[in-house]
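Key result, reporting period 2: structure in, sequence out.
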């Protein structure tokens, strides 16, 4: 008996040409379209709403997931789990997002969609990075980079190496971080050496790594190289100006620090970057002994900062402002009690937001929960693999037993046929022997008769001779 096992990659998805606007896509769902097209429409509607309406995006993801299960389309089922993970991550549901990403990875591995596997492995790493689980994030970024390298995807390999560099830097592994970021730069240059914004981002991260490694001159070189690409994103320009200002500030070069701070003035930036700029400016005044001016700047940062979210730049502002108040009081200046209480209240509010965000768990506890989810998933996967293996072994054993039975049956039939032939042969030999014995007996009788004839002939001759003589 023979049995075969085969596997194949999911065919490329090539849906019919679809409209790009949301209303036209929605109207298609009311028509009689084939399942593959409907799945693609769901996926595009998810992408249309993921940045503006998470609930609506989740609705289309659920519709896609249900239909993909019904028609057994694994590629779109994997995409649905991927999309679900993205939405859960944005909602702060990190454990649920981890589980969705892991399910997507399993499905993408099954259909041979390596880019999807690498993307969601990278996403799991980003989840750990978000909760400051940098050490746990590292293996995921390493694996994602390896898969991207095997598939020749230099763009995403550069992204994975950048993430890996950041995590290694955060854990104090600066040698590894430097090697990672150099590889990220090399891969980006190989993929697209004209993408100024992406190159500026990677070179900026390189500067950050060297800054945290206390190698300020090398950090300045990378920041300047990033500026040389002339990125079109104004936000990136301001970040680079601020990083240069902060680095020169750390080196004690206040003139150059002031110069780069002024370069970013008047450019539209987001609130987080603006607060970070105020922190650098206030620190500049602190280091020059002008604490009164520093207090004014830090208060501007506090007025601008979003106090309803966990805000690390705001926490830095509060710490810096406390230092300036302390310096002012040491020099005999008076600080209003209301200002002191305001700092304490804001710090308390930030701590309450953190407690609420983690639902009573600190970052390490949440990190442990993610680890448990990953471990549980791997155990489930291992058990499923063992069941499949046992099934294959059982099938193989069944085939072997069936084969042995067939062999025994064939041998038995052949044995019976052989015995029958041997019996028939012995029977024929017995008949031939009887014929032989009969012939031998006849030959004996013939010999005795012939001897009698010879004797009688001899006696006749003797008698004739006597008569002749007579």
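The corresponding designed sequence is given below.
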């Amino acid at each position: 008996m023979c049995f075969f096992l085969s596997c194949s990659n999911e065919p490329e998805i090539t849906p019919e040409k679809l409209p790009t606007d949301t209303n036209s896509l929605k109207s298609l769902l009311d028509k009689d379209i084939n399942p593959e097209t409907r799945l693609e429409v769901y996926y595009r509607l998810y992408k249309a709403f993921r940045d503006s309406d998470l609930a609506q995006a989740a609705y289309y993801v659920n519709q896609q997931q249900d239909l993909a299960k019904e028609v057994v389309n694994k590629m779109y089922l994997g995409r649905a789990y991927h999309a679900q993970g993205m939405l859960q991550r944005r909602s702060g549901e990190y454990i649920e997002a981890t589980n969705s990403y892991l399910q997507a990875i399993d499905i993408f591995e099954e259909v041979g969609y390596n880019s999807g596997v690498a993307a969601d492995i990278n996403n799991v790493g980003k989840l750990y990075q978000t909760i400051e689980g940098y050490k746990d994030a590292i293996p995921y970024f390493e694996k994602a980079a390896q898969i991207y390298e095997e598939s020749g995807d230099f763009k995403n390999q550069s992204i994975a190496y950048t993430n890996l560099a950041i995590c290694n830097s955060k854990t104090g592994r600066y040698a590894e971080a430097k090697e990672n970021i150099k590889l990220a730069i090399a891969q980006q240059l190989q993929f697209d050496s004209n993408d100024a914004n992406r190159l500026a981002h990677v070179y900026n991260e390189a500067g950050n790594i060297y800054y945290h490694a206390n190698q300020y001159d090398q950090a300045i070189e990378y920041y300047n190289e990033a500026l040389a690409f002339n990125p079109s994103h104004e936000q990136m320009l301001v970040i680079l100006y601020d990083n240069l200002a902060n680095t020169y500030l750390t080196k004690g070069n206040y003139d150059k620090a002031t110069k780069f701070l002024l370069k970013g003035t008047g450019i539209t930036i987001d609130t987080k970057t603006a607060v970070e700029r105020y922190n650098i400016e206030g620190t500049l005044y602190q280091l020059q002994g002008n604490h009164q001016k520093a207090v004014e700047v830090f208060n501007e940062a506090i007025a601008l900062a979003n106090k309803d979210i966990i805000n690390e730049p705001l926490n830095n502002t509060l710490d810096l402002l406390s230092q300036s108040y302390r310096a002012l009081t040491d020099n005999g200046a008076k600080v209003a009690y209301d200002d002191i209480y305001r700092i304490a209240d804001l710090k308390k509010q930030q701590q309450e937001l953190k407690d609420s965000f983690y639902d009573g768990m600190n970052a390490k506890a949440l990190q442990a929960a993610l680890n448990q989810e990953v471990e549980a998933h791997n155990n489930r996967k291992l058990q499923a693999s063992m069941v499949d293996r046992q099934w294959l072994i059982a099938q193989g054993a069944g085939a072997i037993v069936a084969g042995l039975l067939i062999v025994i049956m064939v041998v038995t039939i052949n044995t019976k046929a052989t015995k029958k032939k041997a019996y028939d042969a012995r029977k024929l030999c017995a008949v031939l022997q009887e014929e032989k014995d009969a012939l031998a007996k006849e030959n004996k009788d013939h010999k005795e008769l012939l001897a009698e004839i010879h004797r009688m002939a001899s006696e006749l001759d003797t008698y004739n001779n006597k008569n002749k003589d007579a």
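DSSP finds 18 helices and no strands in the chain. The chain has a mean pLDDT of 83. This case is discussed further under Risks and Mitigation.
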